Amino acid sequence: MAALPLFKLPVLCINNVLINTDIISLVSISLISRRSKRLVRTTKTSLTGFIIKFKKDMTEVQFVLSDKKEGNWFFEIEEKESSGGQEMEMRYALFVCSSGCPFFRFNQCNNLYITGEKAMRNEDLKNVLENVLIKSVCIIQLPVNADFECNKNAFRFNEFSSLSKEGGHWITREVFLNLKCSRIHLHHTLLEAHDFMAFFERWYYSNDKHFEVMILRTDKTFNGLRFDGETVVFFGVWHNRFPDISGATIFI
Protein backbone atom coordinates (compact mmCIF):
# COMPACT_ATOMS: atom_id res chain seq x y z
CA MET A 1 0.00 0.00 0.00
CA ALA A 2 1.41 3.38 -1.02
CA ALA A 3 2.18 5.92 1.69
CA LEU A 4 -0.24 8.82 2.08
CA PRO A 5 1.46 12.20 1.38
CA LEU A 6 -0.41 13.74 4.32
CA PHE A 7 1.21 17.16 4.39
CA LYS A 8 0.71 17.69 0.66
CA LEU A 9 -3.07 17.55 1.09
CA PRO A 10 -5.25 20.65 1.62
CA VAL A 11 -5.54 21.78 5.23
CA LEU A 12 -9.17 20.64 5.61
CA CYS A 13 -8.22 17.16 4.41
CA ILE A 14 -5.30 17.05 6.83
CA ASN A 15 -7.60 18.03 9.70
CA ASN A 16 -10.07 15.27 8.82
CA VAL A 17 -7.28 12.71 8.81
CA LEU A 18 -5.87 13.92 12.14
CA ILE A 19 -9.29 13.96 13.82
CA ASN A 20 -9.60 10.23 13.10
CA THR A 21 -6.05 9.41 14.23
CA ASP A 22 -5.36 7.82 17.61
CA ILE A 23 -3.65 9.88 20.32
CA ILE A 24 -0.34 7.99 20.31
CA SER A 25 0.03 8.53 16.55
CA LEU A 26 -0.87 12.21 16.91
CA VAL A 27 1.95 12.71 19.41
CA SER A 28 4.38 10.99 17.04
CA ILE A 29 3.20 13.18 14.14
CA SER A 30 3.62 16.34 16.22
CA LEU A 31 7.32 15.55 16.66
CA ILE A 32 8.07 15.54 12.92
CA SER A 33 8.30 19.29 12.38
CA ARG A 34 7.06 22.66 13.59
CA ARG A 35 4.28 22.60 11.00
CA SER A 36 3.10 19.16 12.09
CA LYS A 37 3.16 20.28 15.71
CA ARG A 38 1.02 23.31 14.85
CA LEU A 39 -1.48 21.18 12.91
CA VAL A 40 -1.82 18.65 15.73
CA ARG A 41 -2.29 21.39 18.33
CA THR A 42 -5.23 22.83 16.37
CA THR A 43 -6.88 19.42 15.96
CA LYS A 44 -9.92 18.76 18.13
CA THR A 45 -9.49 15.54 20.08
CA SER A 46 -11.00 13.89 23.14
CA LEU A 47 -7.70 14.27 25.02
CA THR A 48 -8.37 15.88 28.41
CA GLY A 49 -4.97 15.57 30.06
CA PHE A 50 -2.07 13.39 31.13
CA ILE A 51 -1.16 11.29 34.12
CA ILE A 52 2.60 11.61 34.58
CA LYS A 53 4.44 9.29 36.97
CA PHE A 54 8.13 9.67 37.80
CA LYS A 55 9.32 6.22 38.82
CA LYS A 56 12.69 5.02 40.05
CA ASP A 57 14.08 4.04 36.66
CA MET A 58 11.63 5.51 34.18
CA THR A 59 8.94 8.12 33.54
CA GLU A 60 5.43 7.01 32.55
CA VAL A 61 3.08 9.27 30.60
CA GLN A 62 -0.52 8.10 30.30
CA PHE A 63 -2.97 9.84 27.97
CA VAL A 64 -6.41 10.54 29.42
CA LEU A 65 -9.38 10.85 27.08
CA SER A 66 -12.82 12.15 27.97
CA ASP A 67 -14.18 8.62 28.34
CA LYS A 68 -11.13 6.43 29.06
CA LYS A 69 -7.36 6.19 29.45
CA GLU A 70 -5.47 5.33 26.31
CA GLY A 71 -1.88 4.30 25.82
CA ASN A 72 1.29 4.77 27.82
CA TRP A 73 4.69 6.14 26.97
CA PHE A 74 7.71 5.08 29.00
CA PHE A 75 10.95 7.04 29.07
CA GLU A 76 14.10 5.69 30.65
CA ILE A 77 15.91 7.95 33.12
CA GLU A 78 19.43 8.84 32.18
CA GLU A 79 21.96 9.58 34.89
CA LYS A 80 24.68 12.13 34.23
CA GLU A 81 27.60 13.32 36.25
CA SER A 82 27.48 16.92 37.37
CA SER A 83 30.53 19.16 37.65
CA GLY A 84 30.78 18.21 41.30
CA GLY A 85 31.05 14.53 40.49
CA GLN A 86 27.58 13.67 41.85
CA GLU A 87 24.98 11.86 39.81
CA MET A 88 21.81 13.71 38.90
CA GLU A 89 18.62 12.04 37.75
CA MET A 90 16.98 13.81 34.81
CA ARG A 91 13.46 13.15 35.97
CA TYR A 92 11.77 16.44 36.79
CA ALA A 93 9.74 18.46 34.28
CA LEU A 94 11.79 17.04 31.40
CA PHE A 95 11.14 13.72 29.70
CA VAL A 96 14.17 11.98 28.22
CA CYS A 97 14.73 8.86 26.20
CA SER A 98 17.67 6.51 26.69
CA SER A 99 19.85 8.72 24.49
CA GLY A 100 19.07 11.77 26.59
CA CYS A 101 17.19 13.75 23.95
CA PRO A 102 14.30 15.87 25.29
CA PHE A 103 10.80 15.05 24.08
CA PHE A 104 8.73 17.83 25.55
CA ARG A 105 8.29 20.00 28.61
CA PHE A 106 5.04 20.70 30.42
CA ASN A 107 4.17 24.09 31.88
CA GLN A 108 0.81 23.37 33.52
CA CYS A 109 -1.13 20.55 35.12
CA ASN A 110 -4.19 19.99 37.29
CA ASN A 111 -2.54 17.92 40.02
CA LEU A 112 1.15 17.49 40.79
CA TYR A 113 2.44 14.74 43.09
CA ILE A 114 6.17 14.64 43.84
CA THR A 115 7.29 11.58 45.81
CA GLY A 116 10.67 10.03 46.53
CA GLU A 117 13.22 9.08 49.16
CA LYS A 118 15.91 11.62 48.24
CA ALA A 119 15.66 15.39 48.14
CA MET A 120 15.57 17.14 44.78
CA ARG A 121 18.17 19.74 44.00
CA ASN A 122 16.95 23.13 45.18
CA GLU A 123 17.06 24.61 41.67
CA ASP A 124 15.02 21.70 40.24
CA LEU A 125 12.24 21.99 42.82
CA LYS A 126 12.29 25.78 42.51
CA ASN A 127 11.88 25.47 38.73
CA VAL A 128 8.85 23.18 39.11
CA LEU A 129 7.03 25.28 41.72
CA GLU A 130 7.68 28.62 40.03
CA ASN A 131 7.30 27.70 36.35
CA VAL A 132 4.62 24.99 36.29
CA LEU A 133 1.06 26.26 36.63
CA ILE A 134 -0.57 23.85 39.11
CA LYS A 135 -4.31 24.42 38.91
CA SER A 136 -5.58 22.32 41.80
CA VAL A 137 -3.44 20.04 43.99
CA CYS A 138 0.27 20.06 44.84
CA ILE A 139 1.57 17.27 47.08
CA ILE A 140 5.26 17.04 47.99
CA GLN A 141 6.11 13.73 49.62
CA LEU A 142 9.89 13.71 49.54
CA PRO A 143 12.56 15.38 51.69
CA VAL A 144 13.14 19.07 50.95
CA ASN A 145 16.42 20.73 51.88
CA ALA A 146 16.11 23.06 54.87
CA ASP A 147 17.75 25.89 52.89
CA PHE A 148 15.27 25.62 50.00
CA GLU A 149 13.76 28.95 48.94
CA CYS A 150 11.49 30.03 46.11
CA ASN A 151 9.01 32.74 45.20
CA LYS A 152 6.46 32.75 48.04
CA ASN A 153 3.70 33.81 45.63
CA ALA A 154 4.04 30.41 43.91
CA PHE A 155 2.00 28.71 46.65
CA ARG A 156 -1.49 29.48 45.35
CA PHE A 157 -2.91 26.01 44.82
CA ASN A 158 -6.33 24.81 45.86
CA GLU A 159 -4.68 22.15 48.01
CA PHE A 160 -1.09 21.96 49.24
CA SER A 161 0.55 19.18 51.24
CA SER A 162 4.12 18.68 52.43
CA LEU A 163 4.06 15.15 53.82
CA SER A 164 7.65 13.95 54.04
CA LYS A 165 8.76 12.34 57.30
CA GLU A 166 12.02 14.19 56.81
CA GLY A 167 12.75 17.63 55.46
CA GLY A 168 9.61 19.54 56.49
CA HIS A 169 11.67 22.26 58.15
CA TRP A 170 11.73 24.33 54.95
CA ILE A 171 8.18 25.48 55.82
CA THR A 172 9.27 28.59 57.69
CA ARG A 173 6.99 31.21 59.22
CA GLU A 174 7.34 33.34 56.07
CA VAL A 175 6.39 30.45 53.77
CA PHE A 176 3.52 29.46 56.07
CA LEU A 177 1.99 32.93 56.14
CA ASN A 178 2.19 33.21 52.34
CA LEU A 179 0.20 30.04 51.65
CA LYS A 180 -2.92 30.96 49.66
CA CYS A 181 -4.60 27.54 49.63
CA SER A 182 -8.03 26.23 50.61
CA ARG A 183 -6.64 23.03 52.15
CA ILE A 184 -3.22 22.74 53.79
CA HIS A 185 -1.52 19.67 55.27
CA LEU A 186 2.00 20.03 56.67
CA HIS A 187 4.24 17.44 58.37
CA HIS A 188 7.33 17.83 60.57
CA THR A 189 7.64 21.60 60.48
CA LEU A 190 9.31 23.81 63.08
CA LEU A 191 6.31 26.13 63.36
CA GLU A 192 5.29 27.29 66.81
CA ALA A 193 2.12 28.54 68.49
CA HIS A 194 2.74 32.20 67.63
CA ASP A 195 3.16 31.25 63.94
CA PHE A 196 -0.21 29.50 63.93
CA MET A 197 -1.87 32.45 65.71
CA ALA A 198 -0.45 34.83 63.10
CA PHE A 199 -1.96 32.63 60.36
CA PHE A 200 -5.31 32.49 62.17
CA GLU A 201 -5.46 36.25 62.73
CA ARG A 202 -4.56 36.96 59.11
CA TRP A 203 -7.45 34.72 57.99
CA TYR A 204 -9.88 36.04 60.64
CA TYR A 205 -9.46 39.69 59.62
CA SER A 206 -9.43 38.98 55.88
CA ASN A 207 -12.17 38.49 53.28
CA ASP A 208 -11.02 34.95 52.52
CA LYS A 209 -14.13 32.88 51.69
CA HIS A 210 -12.27 29.86 50.30
CA PHE A 211 -10.11 28.52 53.13
CA GLU A 212 -11.45 25.20 54.45
CA VAL A 213 -9.02 23.22 56.57
CA MET A 214 -5.45 23.01 57.81
CA ILE A 215 -3.69 20.10 59.50
CA LEU A 216 -0.36 21.12 60.98
CA ARG A 217 2.09 18.63 62.45
CA THR A 218 5.07 20.32 64.06
CA ASP A 219 8.14 19.08 65.89
CA LYS A 220 7.89 22.08 68.21
CA THR A 221 5.83 22.30 71.40
CA PHE A 222 2.73 24.48 71.55
CA ASN A 223 2.93 26.37 74.84
CA GLY A 224 4.44 23.30 76.48
CA LEU A 225 2.02 20.79 74.90
CA ARG A 226 3.53 17.86 73.04
CA PHE A 227 2.06 14.44 72.28
CA ASP A 228 3.92 11.34 71.06
CA GLY A 229 6.88 13.31 69.77
CA GLU A 230 4.92 15.86 67.74
CA THR A 231 2.14 18.41 68.05
CA VAL A 232 -0.90 18.22 65.76
CA VAL A 233 -3.10 21.26 65.16
CA PHE A 234 -6.40 21.06 63.27
CA PHE A 235 -8.08 24.23 62.06
CA GLY A 236 -11.25 24.02 59.99
CA VAL A 237 -13.81 26.52 58.72
CA TRP A 238 -17.46 25.50 58.49
CA HIS A 239 -18.80 27.44 55.50
CA ASN A 240 -22.16 25.66 55.36
CA ARG A 241 -23.76 25.54 58.81
CA PHE A 242 -26.53 23.16 57.79
CA PRO A 243 -25.16 20.81 55.11
CA ASP A 244 -27.33 18.06 53.65
CA ILE A 245 -25.92 14.85 55.18
CA SER A 246 -28.80 12.56 54.27
CA GLY A 247 -27.48 9.09 53.52
CA ALA A 248 -24.05 9.86 54.97
CA THR A 249 -22.33 7.62 57.51
CA ILE A 250 -20.61 9.48 60.33
CA PHE A 251 -17.82 7.87 62.37
CA ILE A 252 -16.92 9.36 65.75
Automatic annotation (TrEMBL):
According to the lineage, what is the superkingdom?
Answer: Eukaryota
InterPro entries given in the database record: F-box_dom
What region holds the F-box domain? 3-50
What the entry lists under PANTHER family is as follows:
F-BOX ASSOCIATED DOMAIN-CONTAINING PROTEIN-RELATED, F-BOX-CONTAINING HYPOTHETICAL PROTEIN C.ELEGANS
Entry protein name:
F-box domain-containing protein
